[in-house]
């Protein structure tokens, strides 16, 4: 449908137009006067919120699939792990200042984009979800019966995050998972529970920054080289702190 865009398309075109002409060339996706829904949180979602606010959007709501984080660390998120706590970023602050409310809606799952009959998006059908942790420590979600609602939108920006690697890969290869559903492997070694299968980046450590993906990719390449040849002349990654994340 027209009006549904990936976040990077929206942000890249905006930045290019801003640098080239201070947005005067019109070569970007404008949120001016639009009812905007940003699907997904994190830094990318925040950038979409702030950019839409600066364009002059009519309304703003930010769908987040996961439950609202706590104000303080939970017992299963001890130091030195990255603190999974509630944070208000610059985009949220700008939205609060303009519309008087936090744009984030937690525990909400988009089900269907609605067509206005002319190929344009006019809204999103969504439901609330609840998260629970199983005996194996893995999270699972269930839809809340009777919670279906339609949200008006004529601009939808897709900034979905990463909630874990595809489970069928682990099931087919019998790879052990950690409590968060990521492929289990020690930082610096990258070897999974299956000999000859290595893992790195988001599928091992969880959602993080691209620099960690690059770092772990290099580390995994070195580990695989050592596995195949007994030694490696590849350089070791520069970053060595396995607990940091973004």
Query: For this structure, what is the CATH class of the largest domain?
Result: Alpha Beta
Under CATH, the topology of the largest domain is which? FAD/NAD(P)-binding domain
Number of helices: 6
Distance between the termini: 32 Å
Instruction: Please tell me how large the radius of gyration is.
Output: 21 Å
Corresponding CATH superfamily of the largest domain: FAD/NAD(P)-binding domain
Approximate shape: globular
Ranges where pLDDT stays below 50 over 5 or more residues in a row are 240-246
Q: Note the main sheet.
A: 5 strands, parallel
Q: What is the total tally of β strands?
A: 9
Share of helix, binned: 25-40%
Strands side by side in the biggest sheet: 1-9-2-3-4
Structural class comes to alpha/beta
Instruction: Please give the CATH architecture of the largest domain.
Output: 3-Layer(bba) Sandwich
What is the number of independent domains?
A: 2
Taken as a percent bin, the fraction of beta residues is 15-25%
Average residue pLDDT: 91
| Topology pattern, helix = H, strand = E | EHEHEHEEEEEEHHH
Please describe the topology of this protein:
Layout (H helix, E strand, L loop, with lengths): L3 E3 H15 L13 E5 L2 H14 L3 E6 L25 H10 L4 E3 L1 E8 L5 E13 L5 E5 L5 E4 L2 E4 L8 H7 L28 H4 L4 H20 L17
Helix pairs in contact: 1-2, 2-3
Characterise the protein shown here:
The protein has 246 residues and is of the alpha/beta class. It has two domains: 4-158, FAD/NAD(P)-binding domain; 167-229, no CATH class. 28% of the residues lie in helices and 21% in strands. It has helices spanning 7-21, 42-55, 90-99, 167-173, 202-205, 210-229, and strands at 4-6, 35-39, 59-64, 104-106, 108-115, 121-133, 139-143, 149-152, 155-158. The strands form two sheets. The chain has a five-stranded parallel sheet with strand order 1-9-2-3-4. Strands 5, 6, 7 and 8 form a four-stranded antiparallel sheet that branches. A hairpin with a 5-residue loop joins strand 5 (108-115) and strand 6. Helix 2 runs parallel beside helix 3 (90-99). The radius of gyration is 21 Å and the shape is globular. The two termini are 32 Å apart. The relative contact order is 0.13.
């Amino acid at each position: 449908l027209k009006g549904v865009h990936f976040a990077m398309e929206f942000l890249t075109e905006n930045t290019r137009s801003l640098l080239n002409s201070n947005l005067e060339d019109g070569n970007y996706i404008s949120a001016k006067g639009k009812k905007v829904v940003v699907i997904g949180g994190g830094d990318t979602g925040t950038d979409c919120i702030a950019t839409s606010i600066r364009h002059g959007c009519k309304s703003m709501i930010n769908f987040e699939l996961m439950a609202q984080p706590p104000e303080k660390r939970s017992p299963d998120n001890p130091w030195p792990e990255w603190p999974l706590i509630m944070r208000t970023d610059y985009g949220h602050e700008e939205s609060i200042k303009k519309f008087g409310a936090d744009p984030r809606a937690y525990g909400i799952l988009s089900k269907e984009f609605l067509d206005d009959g002319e190929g344009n998006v006019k809204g999103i059908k969504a439901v609330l979800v609840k998260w629970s942790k199983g005996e194996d420590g893995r999270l699972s979600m269930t839809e809340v019966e009777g919670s279906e609602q339609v949200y008006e939108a004529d601009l939808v920006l897709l900034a979905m995050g990463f909630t874990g690697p595809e489970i069928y890969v682990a099931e087919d290869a019998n790879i052990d998972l950690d409590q968060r559903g990521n492929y289990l492997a020690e930082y610096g070694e990258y070897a999974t529970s299956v000999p000859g299968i290595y893992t790195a980046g988001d599928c091992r450590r969880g959602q993080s920054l691209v620099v960690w993906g690059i770092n772990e990719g290099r580390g995994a390449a070195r580990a695989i080289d050592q596995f195949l040849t007994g030694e490696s002349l590849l350089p070791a990654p520069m970053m060595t702190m396995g607990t940091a994340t973004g």
